[in-house]
């Protein structure tokens, strides 16, 4: 099994509009698919890649133009400054979870393996999904399932989990499924569990908050004409990216000047998100939910 097969690879590289002498950042290195392709288009330029998962370091290319930083992308600006970079010509992020993280049972990202509920993208992080479930009150758990999993019966889910953990720890995927199984809609169990696990994963890794922090820093760093290329996999992160690219804020509030003209830091290159074609989905079924958005800094 490949570490990760990048979705919309050709489209995202085209979206970056790479200059051979430019400076580019891949904030989600993973299996290195996007980075390897960027390097093919560079001449004397530079590529800096981020990944908080130490497992990604197994995939590093040997190239003098390439620098890898084992860091969360929320520390984008400071890490680039430490490496002598104050501005960039493009940034790409392939959000979500790599194949490797999903397929390695010990990482605890999926309900398909009865493994410990870990879900940390940074294995040195202190809080696991099991720890979160054990420590949070019922109301806070319900908020996580509603806000990050868009589960409308979030309060009932949280109540069942709290009742289950009073008897024994909810420490594995099997424990969690057992605790909430009677709430799973018939014939839609997998979709229900996918949303449940997604919510916990987002909470454990602060994915939405850290995405927002990274995007604000990217806006400051991009040179005029520089490109922001984002691949999202669910509606929550896609809404954040879409609003930011259209308006420069996360609420999607359009600011206007004295004459009523929209004030935005970006020109949209993709008016609507680009999704994979049937051929790509046939080759890589996990690309089905991918959506690519590209914007250029004005």
Q: What do these coordinates show?
A:
It contains 12 helices and 9 strands. By secondary structure, the protein is α/β, with parallel strands linked by helices. The protein folds into 2 domains: 9-99 and 207-297, Rossmann fold (3-Layer(aba) Sandwich), CATH 3.40.50; 110-205, Putative methyltransferase TM0872, insert domain (DNA polymerase, domain 1, Orthogonal Bundle). Strands 3-2-1-4-5-9-8 form a 7-stranded mixed β-sheet, sandwiched between helices. Strands 6-7 form a two-stranded antiparallel sheet. Strand 1 (23-26), helix 2 (33-41) and strand 2 form a beta-alpha-beta unit. Helix 6 packs across helix 7 (154-167) and helix 10 (207-221) runs parallel beside helix 11 (235-247). The protein starts with 8 loop residues before the first helix and ends with a strand.
Please summarize the sheet with the most strands.
Answer: 7 strands, mixed
CATH hierarchy class name of the largest domain: Alpha Beta
Total domains, how many? 2
Helix content: 40-55%
As for the CATH topology of the largest domain, it is: Rossmann fold
**How much of the sequence is in beta strands?**
15-25%
What would you give as the CATH superfamily of the largest domain? Vaccinia Virus protein VP39
What is the CA-based Rg, rounded?
20 Å
Corresponding CATH architecture of the largest domain: 3-Layer(aba) Sandwich
Q: How many DSSP H or I helices?
A: 12
Class inferred from helices and paired strands: alpha/beta
Give the rounded overall mean pLDDT. 95
């Amino acid at each position: 099994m490949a570490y990760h097969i990048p979705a919309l690879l050709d489209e995202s590289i085209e979206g970056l509009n790479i200059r051979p002498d430019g400076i580019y950042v891949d904030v989600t290195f993973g299996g290195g698919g996007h980075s390897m392709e960027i390097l093919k288009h560079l001449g004397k330029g530079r590529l800096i890649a981020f990944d908080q998962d130490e497992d990604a370091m197994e995939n590093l290319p040997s190239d003098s133009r390439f620098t890898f930083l084992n860091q969360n992308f929320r520390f984008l600006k400071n890490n680039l400054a430490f490496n002598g970079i104050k501005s960039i010509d493009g940034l790409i992020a392939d959000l979500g979870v790599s194949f490797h993280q999903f397929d390695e049972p010990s990482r605890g990202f999926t309900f398909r393996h009865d493994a410990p509920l870990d879900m940390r993208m940074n294995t040195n992080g202190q809080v696991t999904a099991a720890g979160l479930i054990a420590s949070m009150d019922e109301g806070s758990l319900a908020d996580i399932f509603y806000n990050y999993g868009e589960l409308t019966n979030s309060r009932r889910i949280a109540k069942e989990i709290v009742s289950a953990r009073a008897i024994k720890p909810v420490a594995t995927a099997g424990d969690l499924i057992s605790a909430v199984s009677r709430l799973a809609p018939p014939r839609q169990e997998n979709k229900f569990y996918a949303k449940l696990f997604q919510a916990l994963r987002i909470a454990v890794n602060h994915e939405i908050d850290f995405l927002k922090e990274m995007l604000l820093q990217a806006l400051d760093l991009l040179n005029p004409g520089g490109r922001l290329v984002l691949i999202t996999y669910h509606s929550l992160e896609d809404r954040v990216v879409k609003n930011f690219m259209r308006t420069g804020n996360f609420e999607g509030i359009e600011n206007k000047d004295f004459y009523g003209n929209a004030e935005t830091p970006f020109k949209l290159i993709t008016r609507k998100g680009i999704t994979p074609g049937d051929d790509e989905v046939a080759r890589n079924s996990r690309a089905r939910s991918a959506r690519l958005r590209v914007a250029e800094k004005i």
